[in-house]
Amino acid sequence: MTTTVRTTTTTTTAEALSATTLLRFATAGSVDDGKSTLVGRLLHDSKSVLTDQLEAVERASASRGAEAPDLALLTDGLRAEREQGITIDVAHRYFATPRRRFILADTPGHVQYTRNMVTGASTAELTVILVDARNGVVEQTRRHTAIAALLRVPHVVLAVNKMDLVGYEEAVFAAIAEEFTAYAGELGVPEITAIPISALTGDNVVEASSNMDWYGGPTVLEHLETVPVGHDPAPGSARLPVQYVIRPRTAEHPDYRGYAGRVATGTFRVGEEVTILPSGRTTKISGIDLLGEPVDVAWTTQSVTILLQDDVDVSRGDLIVPSEEAPALTQDVSATVCHVADEPLTVGHRVLLKHGTRTVKAIVKEIPSRLTLDDLSQHPEPGRLVANDIGRVRIRTAEPLPIDSYADSRRTGSFILIDPADGTTLTAGMAIAHPGRNDRMRS
Known about the structure:
Distance between the termini: 58 Å
Low-confidence stretches: 1-20, 77-88, 434-443
Helix content: 10-25%
Largest sheet: 8 strands, antiparallel
Mean pLDDT: 83
Shape: globular
Number of helices: 8
Strand content: 25-35%
């Protein structure tokens, strides 16, 4: 009887964990390093592919004369991708194992699509960077590693792919892992796990490889299932960018006024004193609605409606913060940026800066440096940044912004620069708390 009770309790705990544990991760690497094949193998071998999807891939592979299904077709969904055998857009896939749920972003390898890697990795907690064992670390590998460091992705996996084409030699893997680890360490990547794999044959993807008995670490899936994921509902100072003001004016709710948005970081509680930025007015939270029901607490990633005790002026673009944790307002923003547009970013460039739900006019005052990927040196005063360049900028905004340091908050420390003429995204930026620091990427 006692044994039965313990078994039931354990199962319930495991079910609860699998229902709430979510890992967002992205794949990256140079073109033809095997990213889409790895994702396809991961989905196939973890039994996360529907029968009709697999049949469609088998038909498409057979029409090309392939003897076996091309698993890369599971993620390369655009017609141009399938015709050229490359990834262009970011392909998102959702799957689950008994231990964890996953959202993965398969990002492109071509240099001209680096901007899509920035998009895919911006919300990731882990990035898998693939390297072709025959080619080793190349320029695009370094660029993607720099972006992962820039975006402060907590965990990086080096997947040395195509080990079957180098005879599963341990020395090849060890040399690549040493070079990559040294480079990523210089960028300040906090955690690196190196895994030798063959995505084509499935070695060390889901099942351990019998061809590399010299490797005693986890497979890719084992690492994805066990890597620590932040579950603290209140990391960092609380921030809620207001997206919409709700005023139904119905007979049932004649005086209802709520401020809807997604909690970017931290925790809000009923009765807490808050400040509305940029106006600086203070009040208290009188209620929180979640999915139409009142709750006492709201935390990170929840979409809620906050009701305030006083009738203060709050509109879209404002930021609700606890009064004791309010960030300073500034019109001078220093940031590390990745330029993603074909049009260069130059000193004197007039742009729109979008931070959270607020968009303001701005001008690029200075471009102090551009990162050289080969040796991680800073090229001073380049005057401009072209597509895929990573550098430092100083921006003056027309209105004060409550912007955090990206080191403190990936959500409220980030912004984008927009072309005011046509709405094109020009640059992805990460605000720096201390512009005077010169610690390469991790300011």
